[in-house]
Amino acid sequence: MSPGTGAALRMLAATVDAKAVAEIGTGTGVSGIHLLHGMRPDGVLTTVDSEPERQQFARQAFRAAGFASNRARFIPGHALDVLPRLADSGYDLVFCDGDRAECLDYLAESLRLLRPGGLVCFEGVFSDGRTVDSGPQPAEVVRLRELLRGVRESQDLVPSLLPVGDGLLCAVKR
């Protein structure tokens, strides 16, 4: 994650006064640290990843960054198996940085998870410039194009594409 993307996430979490954030793709914890810095002091980050080793690394990174253990809830598993168990309208922000082939499914789950006025964000939507390249593209890029089109055309969302890092697609749920 680029420093600009991290700064944008921190600012967006603060803008929605986030108390509950869901993250798809824990990774090494970099995005989670940025989100936690922007969240309310009593906020909780729920982070989902299919690799428990990554989550253990992120748990250590959060601790090293000064966050109490009760500020993050780590759920191992495939996102599309875990997300349906999370509360409807229970989240202020959903950050998606998981399997790009599943981005449309993440969007559908995010709309269910978000409260009205909540924010969904997708990292890496430029796909190194391939989403705007007119040549034949891999399935991952085709799915990202479908995501961009779906968010843009949705009556339930107010979208913006931020040119930070490799593209940060954000949308507020009406």
From TrEMBL:
<dbReference type="GO" id="GO:0008171">
    <property type="term" value="F:O-methyltransferase activity"/>
</dbReference>
<keyword id="KW-0808">Transferase</keyword>
<keyword id="KW-0489">Methyltransferase</keyword>
<dbReference type="InterPro" id="IPR002935">
    <property type="entry name" value="SAM_O-MeTrfase"/>
</dbReference>
<keyword id="KW-0949">S-adenosyl-L-methionine</keyword>
<protein>
    <submittedName>
        <fullName>Methyltransferase</fullName>
    </submittedName>
</protein>
<dbReference type="GO" id="GO:0032259">
    <property type="term" value="P:methylation"/>
</dbReference>
<dbReference type="InterPro" id="IPR029063">
    <property type="entry name" value="SAM-dependent_MTases_sf"/>
</dbReference>
<dbReference type="GO" id="GO:0008757">
    <property type="term" value="F:S-adenosylmethionine-dependent methyltransferase activity"/>
</dbReference>
<dbReference type="InterPro" id="IPR050362">
    <property type="entry name" value="Cation-dep_OMT"/>
</dbReference>
<dbReference type="Pfam" id="PF01596">
    <property type="entry name" value="Methyltransf_3"/>
</dbReference>
